[in-house]
Amino acid sequence: MSRFYISQNIQEKTVFRLPENIVRHVKVLRLKENDAITLFNGDGFEYHGICHFENKREVFAEIQSQQAISRESSLNIVLIQAISTGERMDWTIQKSVELGVSRIIPMVTERSQHLSSERAEKRVKRWQEIIISACEQCGRNVLPTIDGVMSLPEVLQQKIGETRFLLSPRGEKQERTITPPTPITLLAGAEGGLSLQEEQQAIDAGFIPLQLGKRILRTETAALTALAYLQTRWGDF
Over the stretch 135-168, which tens digit does the pLDDT of each residue have? Predict the structure, then answer.
């Protein structure tokens, strides 16, 4: 499917030149003159058109129609994810977008990866690119937001969600007795989880500790498993 995000206004019955990053994808996909293309810019619409090739470097999109299509979850879920190492964080962000989160807050904790301010900015920019790519793939026409990196105390000061879940192997399986209003906030630790002190801080801030079965899940598994469960029990799965 030739579907791309473009960060500019799009109007029906117009022709405009595609930016270089999309042109590269068009070439990789080997699209030809008059092949169909779909664009979105986060406004909730899909814009359908065809490709025109001016030369080897320039590709134009002729927008023929627009369509309001919502593939957003019925649940408004905020994911607070402690920063994990390597590609784990990238994986978690990509898959959480596919699972319907509306907002992602990367968090620094005692056991998470710590980043300099410069590196944190670069990582957030990279995560924004992953969000766009995930939306292109899964069909979402509204981009989830991602905050700058926060500490746990900063996160706990945020006004996020009437129902707040904390993933913890020391939690209880009490979610079955809860019918959560939205938005829902889900907090997941990094490798090693949160410290006892951090968990207590979250509980004091209104988070309900939850255990996902008898086995301890890795950080890149825990949040995604919880998201899938929430969508199955109360969402659009």
Answer: 999 999 999 999 999 999 999 998 887 889 999 8
Residue with more model confidence, 176 or 110? 110
In the structure encoding, which two tokens stand for residue 192, read together? Answer: 């090693």
pLDDT at res. 175: 53
Return the CATH class of domain 77-233: alpha beta
CA distance 193 to 170: 11
- Residues 59-90, buried b or exposed e (16+ Cβ, 10 A)? bebebeebeeeeeebebbbbbbbbbbeeebbb
Q: Which of 12, 88, 1 minimizes the C-alpha distance to 43?
A: 12
The b/e string for 188-209 (b: 16+ C-beta within 10 A; e otherwise) is bbbbebbeeebbebbeebebbb
Model confidence at 177: pLDDT above 60: no
Name the CATH superfamily for 3-68. Hypothetical PUA domain-like; domain 1 (2.40.240.20)
The torsion of the CA quartet 185, 237, 137, 165, rounded to 10 degrees, works out to: 10
And the tokens for 208? 């309900």
